[in-house]
Amino acid sequence: GGPFSLITHEKKPVTDKDFHGQWILIYFGFTHCPDICPEELEKLAEVTELLHKQKNKQNYPFQPLFVSVDPERDTPELVSKYIKDYSPHFIGLTGTRDQVADMCKHYRVYFSQGPKVGDDYIVDHAIVMYLINPNGEFVDYYGRNKNAKEVAYAIEQHMNAFKESNK
Amino acid sequence: MSVIDKKYREKCWSVRDDYWKCLDMNKEEKEKCLQFRQLFESSCPATWVVHFDQKHEYDIFKRQLALGQVETDKLKSIKQQPKS
């Protein structure tokens, strides 16, 4: 984990510090993604729903984040339109190439623009969701092999542990 | 409509699945599925067609591996490829 400085799909500049006090689950992807990002975002939406059901047991809110690894194409407007199809709770983040590259470096997320077909291309990237706790610390990560229930359950365990250690 | 629209994506996946179903029923003989292929190519961006074609090849290969249908020569040549 680490610092980041991007803008939201509503064009609001944010940094990692703006998310302190929340549990954040970050998925890195891009709007022109053929299949994997839609599947993972459906999963992220389901995780969000599962966790929000237990809201009253949680001390800190859960916030799902989508971060674009395609800064050339993914404007805030595009990201906004894209994430709305998955969940009203998502915040989408994008930025300049340098801002995105910087965050990906800190989060060890590989991404690379694939071969162009005309103007179009697919971005090859690591498929992962990162969990950050309310102190801004990296806590866990989840790959394609975990389904929504498994991810939500794992997060709940972390939330409980965090609650205990902060009594 | 573009890939940003959910309906566009779902249409593309649906015609892609129809094409794959046709191939499956015709032992992967592409000539038997030309109409499905045309619909697939016109409903999805070119980059996605390339991506899904690669995925399909890979899925078939995985299936063949599982069924023990891959010839040892092919396996050998894969094992000799430098690890990426």
What do these coordinates show?
The complex is a heterodimer of chains A (167) and B (84). Chain A has 167 residues and is of the alpha+beta class. Chain A has one domain (5-166): Glutaredoxin (3-Layer(aba) Sandwich), CATH 3.40.30. Helix content of chain A is 33%, strand content 24%. Chain A has four helices and nine strands. Chain A has helices spanning 36-53, 76-84, 97-106, 148-165, and strands spanning 5-8, 13-15, 23-29, 62-68, 91-94, 111-113, 123-125, 129-132, 138-142. In chain A, the strands form two sheets. In chain A, strands 2-1-5-4-3-8-9 form a seven-stranded mixed β-sheet. Chain A has a two-stranded antiparallel ribbon with strand order 6-7. In chain A, helix 1 (36-53) links the parallel strand 3 (23-29) and strand 4. Chain A is globular. The two termini of chain A are 25 Å apart. In chain A, 35% of the residues are buried. The mean pLDDT of chain A is 95. The model of chain B has no long low-confidence stretch (mean pLDDT 89). In chain B, helix 1 packs antiparallel against helix 2 (34-43). By secondary structure, chain B is mostly helical. The relative contact order of chain B is 0.09. Chain B has helices spanning 6-25, 34-43, 46-66, 72-79. Chain B has four helices and no strands. Chain B has one domain (6-79). The chains are: A alpha+beta (167), B mainly alpha (84).
Short summary:
With 167 residues, chain A is α+β, with helices and mostly antiparallel strands. Chain A has four helices and nine strands, in the order E-E-E-H-E-H-E-H-E-E-E-E-H. Chain B is mostly helical.
